[in-house]
Every structure is written in C-alpha cells, then in structure tokens.
Amino acid sequence: xxxxxxxxxxxxxxxxxxxxxxxxxxxxxxxxxxxxxxxxxxxxxxxxxxxxxxxxxxxxxxxxxxxxxxxxxxxxxxxxxxxxxxxxxxxxxxxxxxxxxxxxxxxxxxxxxxxxxxxxxxxxxxxxxxxxxxxxxxxxxxxxxxxxxxxxxxxxxxxxxxxxxxxxxxxxxxxxxxxxxxxxxxxxxxxxxxxxxxxxxxxxxxxxxxxxxxxxxxxxxxxxxxxxxxxxxxxxxxxxxxxxxxxxxxxxxxxxxxxxxxxxxxxxxxxxxxxxxxxxxxxxxxxxxxxxxxxxxxxxxxxxxxxxxxxxxxxxxxxxxxxxxxxxxxxxxxx
Length: 335
Ligand code: NAI
Hints:
Layout: E1 3-8, H1 12-23, E2 28-34, H2 38-44, E3 50-51, H3 54-59, E4 65-68, H4 72-84, E5 89-91, H5 99-112, E6 117-119, H6 127-137, E7 144-152, H7 164-181, E8 185-191, E9 207-213, E10 218-224, E11 232-239, E12 243-245, H8 255-258, H9 260-276, H10 284-303, E13 307-308
Parallel strand pairs: 1-2, 1-4, 2-3, 4-5, 5-6, 7-10
Antiparallel strand pairs: 7-11, 8-9, 8-13, 9-10, 11-12
Helix pairs in contact: 4-5, 5-10, 6-7, 7-10
Bound molecules: 1,4-dihydronicotinamide adenine dinucleotide.
C-alpha cells in the first residue's frame, strides 16, 4: 500500500518534508499541498501533488494522512480537523501554540478513543540520541543522575517573540529528556544572565533552565538562540559509574542539516506506523507534557522561583509505550 499524504504548510520545514517524502521515503506519495501563501504551495506542487486549501486537503478522500508544517498557532485547528476527519497526522512541534491548545487536542483524541497524532519531536529518531539512549538502557553509565544539555541557534528566527526560546526551542529538550530518561519532569527553574547584545530587543537570550524529574534526575539546559557561530545541540549524561555524551557533530549553519537523517527516519517511521496500524514517536500526550513544562518555565522566569510541573493522570490511551521508533519500512527494509 502506498500512503497518500497531504502536506499543510510548505515553508522551510514543509518543503523539506515534501522533498523527503518524494525521495527518501518508502511507501508514501504526496498527493496534495496547501499553504496560505499560494505561491509557496505552487513551488512544491507537481504532477502528483495538487494545490488545495487546508480544509479540502484534510477532507479529501484521496488523502490518507496529513503532515502539518504550518506555524505553531495554526497547529491546533488543523490537528483537531484531522481528528474530526479520522485522519492520522504528523504535526510539527510544538503540538499547539498554547498549553490549553495541547490539552484540547489530547481531550479530542481521548474522546475519539484512537491514537492518530504523532508530534514532530524528531530527536527521538536521531542516531546520536538513539545511541545515547541505548547506552543508558544498557547501563553503560550506571543509573542516571544529571544531564547537561545545550540548544544553540546561530540567529533567532525573525518571528521569535520573547517566549519563543522556551515555547518553540526548549520544548525539544523537554521531550528528549522525558524520552531519554523515561521519566516525567516535575519542577523547573529558569535563570537569566545579562542578554547578548546581539539578541533582538526584548528577547532574553541566553537562558539557563534547570529541570527535575520524578526520578530525581537534574538536567540543566542552555537555550541560546543567537549564538552566532552555528546550530549546535549537546547532551551529556552523568551516571553513577560513568558519563556518556551525544556524539559530537560540527556546528552547522542550517538546523535542517544537523537533523536531516532524524527528519527522514521520523517521517519513515510515521509512514510505517500509519500503514501498519501502529503508533510511534511522540504522542499528543508527550506534546502536551512538553507544553505544560514550557508554560511552567515561563512562569518560573516571570516569578523568579521554581515552579512545579503538574500533569493530570495519563489517560489509558497513552499507556502503551511509544518510546521506540518503528524500525522497518512498509516493504520490510530497515529505515
Ligand atoms: P515557515 O514560516 O518557513 O513556513 C510556514 C508556512 O506555513 C509558510 O509558508 C506559511 O505561509 C504557511 N502558513 C501559515 N499559516 C498557515 C495556515 N493556517 N495553513 C497553511 N499554511 C500556513 O516556518 P517553518 O520554519 O517551516 O516552521 C513550520 C513549523 O515547523 C513550526 O511549527 C515550527 O515550530 C516547526 N519547526 C520544527 C522544527 C523541528 O526541528 N522539528 C524546526 C523548525 C520549525
């Protein structure tokens, strides 16, 4: 079976996903694309992929599944429309622009009683993170005690509001920490040094976040979105018997180059899961957990105190583990 995919949002990420779906993915084809900027949609359309509006794309009978790469604030209505149409959806991170939006998506999916949402936290599919996770699982560093993480961009996106380093960048770290440790974040603190003179007015950059997990692990996270020298993501695990760190990769100018393989593996795993009736990657619940943590960080920064991260009980729908990515393509070849 070939999965017929519709892609909404054909900017930087969406056009890259379309290119990946066309060249690097087994078992999928792009049949429709949509963007509020018609010119952008036309640039990625071809003989197989027509241009249409988002609502028509989601309801089209020849679209089996939807990939959303529109801006954050468009995610919630689009994901809800996919759920209402009963269509599997891979939504770029964050799941929604607000924690309330994330919650509404979880509630709609729970009411539906079927897992249809995967969130684009692609680090779970990155070979270097997978290796670090394997080291942890194998006990190669002993029981985990601390993580030292850094997320650096050369220059912030022009549309970054003061909240974006936390709502849009740090969410990657929250998700990967929960995934690596198989543990929930329970408390956060935010420390703000003097801002870089190269950051846009109003943006407090860099920032240091400290998160605690239910299992007692502490993680410090540097978020620096105007680091100038390049895109650079780091993670070091300190365990009881040793340390393990993310394999070093040279800083790159374009973040898409650092995680190109992870994006491809993520999309392939999604296609495999949808085709075979399974689920994988970050769930709507994981997206919600990242959103709750981000909201707590905003409060912690504002009030200059640590803030508890409180999640309601996890609905039964999300109890089955989805930590491990699918490892085959629809035709059975390894990803
Ligand atoms: P972009 O601005 O390059 O592209 C967004 C596109 O969506 C634009 O072409 C815009 O015209 C279109 N658009 C706006 N509103 C729309 C709507 N309601 N319906 C359909 N199209 C709409 O932005 P970019 O960088 O591609 O980001 C898209 C999403 O991907 C964001 O949610 C962002 O947070 C996420 N992202 C994820 C990354 C990752 O590492 N997983 C990295 C960068 C972005």
